[in-house]
Amino acid sequence: MTRHLLRDDDLTAVEQAEILDLAVELKRDRWAQKPLAGPQTVAVIFDKSSTRTRVSFAVGIADLGGSPLIISTANSQLGGKETPADTARVLERQVAAIVWRTYAQAGLEEMARGTRVPVVNALSDDFHPCQLLADLLTIKEHKGELAGLTLAFFGDGRSNMAHSYVLAGVTAGMHVRVASPDTYAPRDDVIDDADQRAKETGGSVTLYTDPLEAAAGADVVVTDTWVSMGKEEEKLARLRDLGAYKVTNETMALAASDAIFIHCLPADRGYEVDAEVIDGPQSVVWDEAENRLHAQKALLVWLLRQQ
Fold this sequence. Notes:
Blueprint: H1 13-28, E1 41-46, H2 52-63, E2 67-72, H3 84-91, E3 97-101, H4 105-113, E4 119-123, H5 129-143, E5 150-154, H6 160-171, E6 175-179, H7 188-201, E7 204-208, H8 211-215, E8 220-223, H9 235-242, H10 249-254, E9 260-263, H11 275-278, H12 285-305
Parallel strand pairs: 1-2, 1-3, 3-4, 5-6, 5-8, 6-7, 8-9
Helix pairs in contact: 1-12, 2-12, 3-4, 5-6, 5-12, 6-7
């Protein structure tokens, strides 16, 4: 059966751990596996601009012996005359996998239903599972075992990043705190799904409106940009609504003494995080950015093995 990664809980706890362990191996020996030798081609489709996603997938596919085919939807029929399902039927006869950085989660789901090759969500409005694999790899490197750690997310709880932290964190057995105003709380259905997964893993999700309470004793402190791509007109409102949730030195002082700070980047210094934090000794954001490469390579290897 073809496996896809469209949202973080498409992976069980065991499967997530397998991919992270494989990422550790591939980081140690970068060219150890060549499942795409040939070279086989992987289609990497972009509706949105990108730095880390574009570079890490292009380099990772090449590392695995393959050829990345970078496609801009502005220069293709996808999203115009052709449906995601029809595009998938064309691509599956020529590529080994499809990676898509897009807007609507529904498009990814339609594409996955229409193809026999793995489809990977490289970002949607709802979830960012590839980023979370990289983040979990980074946390694992710096903190050891993931299960039992407390991760505190600050800012927009309805963002794709918050939703992915909730699902992936709980899958890893972590205790996830989301600090946001009530009007920015994660979607109820995402929390319900996380609560169900938590029954299997021992993780948990707790929502806070008080950012200082959420920070207390946290092992991992996280934030994300407050203004998502394509929503720049919301910046002033979000600065007003989310200002109290900026990660500062005070936030880090309330967390555990050995807490680490992560941010998926790009960061808007002075808005969601102070420069002193992101550039400070507890920040591991550059390890995190590199780990997109290793985590995504591991994901592709794992998905291809399921074929």
